[in-house]
Design goal:
Blueprint lengths: L11 H13 L2 H8 L3 H15 L4 E3 L4 E3 L1 H29 L2 E6 L1 H8 L3 H7 L4 E6 L12 E6 L7 E13 L17 E4 L14 H7 L11 E3 L2 H9 L4 E5 L4 H6 L10 E10 L7 H14 L5
Parallel strand pairs: 3-4, 3-5, 7-8, 7-9
Antiparallel strand pairs: 1-2, 5-10, 6-9, 6-10
Helix pairs in contact: 1-2, 1-3, 1-4, 2-3
InterPro entries: LysR-type_TF_proteobact-type, LysR_HTH_N, LysR_subst-bd, WH-like_DNA-bd_sf, WH_DNA-bd_sf
GO biological process, one term: DNA-templated transcription
Keywords: DNA-binding, Transcription, Transcription regulation
Length: 303
């Protein structure tokens, strides 16, 4: 690009008239498209030809044909105007589209955020909500406006606001409710494998810890069914395949509806949920509407 050099172009209006006439091979139809008179079209094209010192059309009694010069100019001008129209449309869509992007774990989006998504539109009808379900760490400067993260609350370089701590307890289908703690010895235990990053973390709630606190440390805490995806573990328990040590946050709806029950009050506190966003995005309108909505949904530890 030649910065500071003025382009030597004919008037855009004349080029637009030429493109319409060349596309339709009719001054009359071009005039109808542009909502001007046929005389005005003919006059604009004549001025353009005089300016270029080139003949662009061969004029017949009832039709016009492009000259070689017109054939050269038309496709370049047509494609340029098409791209111009597309660019203007994109700019307008970006102006009119207000999208707030919130990311969280696959399980939290599926079990907690997706069922609440309608309330976001109720609170902010001029905004669109995009939920990014991902267990990877998303770039909060480039790929999302805010996140609900699950961890120890330490997020260097980011702003965070605590929402609530998660708790885990045994849950099961009603027909599998054990009559006593000792009945767990014969039960199928359902596990969520936290993976190598948290498998040895004392805050990772696992059956071994819960059974020890319940006085059943002699039970094989590794037996039963194990899943690497938390949603799959929940689905297994809902299907009646065993008793799972599950997040009470993720199965809140199932417990409220009676699909699942919590047979024992003893629970383990685990990691916590935080609203997290980049300090560079703190004043971004999308971040602000997400913050208002998330805090409203989970205010005071409500979950």
């Amino acid at each position: 690009m030649r910065w500071g050099v003025m382009r030597k172009l004919p008037p855009l209006g004349a080029l637009r008239v030429f493109e319409a006439a060349a596309r339709r091979l009719s001054f009359k139809q071009a005039a109808e498209e542009l909502n001007v008179s046929a005389t005005a079209v003919s006059h604009q094209i004549r001025q353009l030809e005089d300016l270029l010192e080139l003949k662009l059309f061969e004029r017949g009694t009832r039709q016009v044909r492009l000259t070689p010069a017109g054939h050269t100019l038309f496709p370049v001008l047509r494609d340029g105007l098409d791209r111009f129209e597309q660019a203007i449309g994109e700019v307008r869509r970006n102006r009119d589209s207000k999208v707030a992007r919130l990311t969280s774990t696959v399980a939290f989006v599926a079990k907690r955020l997706a069922p609440l998504a309608g309330s976001f539109r109720d609170a902010h009808p001029d905004w669109n909500l995009r939920l990014d379900a991902s267990n990877r760490t998303v770039d909060l400067d480039a790929d999302a406006d805010a996140a609900i993260r699950y961890g120890d609350g330490q997020y260097p370089g980011l702003l965070s606001e605590p929402l609530f701590a998660d708790r885990f307890a045994p849950v099961c289908a009603p027909h599998l409710v054990p009559q006593s703690l000792d009945a767990l010895r014969a039960a199928t235990l359902v596990h969520f494998d936290w993976g190598p990053a948290r498998r040895d973390d004392e805050r990772a709630p696992v059956w071994r810890q819960w059974l020890k606190l319940a006085g059943l440390g002699d039970i094989d805490a590794a037996g039963g069914l194990s899943f690497t995806d938390e949603i799959h573990a929940v689905q297994s328990v809902v299907a009646g395949q065993g008793i799972g040590l599950l997040s009470l946050t993720l199965v809140a709806q199932e417990l409220a509806s009676g699909i699942l029950v919590q047979p024992f009050a003893l629970s383990l506190e685990s990691y916590r949920y935080d609203l997290v966003y980049s300090p560079r995005a703190a004043e971004r309108p999308a971040t602000q509407v997400l913050r208002d909505w998330v805090l409203e949904q989970f205010e005071g530890g409500k979950h």
